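Hi R.,

Here's the chain you asked about this morning:
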Amino acid sequence: IVSPPVCGNYFVEVGEECDCGLPRNCQNQCCNATTCKLIPGAQCEDGECCERCQFKGAGNVCRPRRSKCDIAESCTGQSPDCPTDRFRRNGVSCLNN
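And here is the predicted structure, written out as C-alpha cells:
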C-alpha cells in the first residue's frame, strides 16, 4: 500500500520540493511550509552548494582535497549538492615522498 505524500512531515516526498515541517515549526526561509514548495525565486533550500536559497556559483569549493590523491570538488552552479568525491586517475603517483 502506498500512501500519498504528506506535507509537514520533514520528508521530501513525490511532488514536494522541500518539507520543513508544520508551518509553526518551519525554520527554513527557502521553503513554503504550507505547500512544501520552494518560495518564489528560490533555487534550493539545502545542500553544500546552496546559500540563501540560491545555488552557489560554479567553482566554489565544496569539498577540499584531503590528500595528494584526492581532488577538490567544486559546486557546478546548477545543483545544491557537491559532486561525488573524486580522486586522481590511476597511474598518477600520489605517494608522500
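One quick note: The chain has a mean pLDDT of 92.

Cheers,
M.
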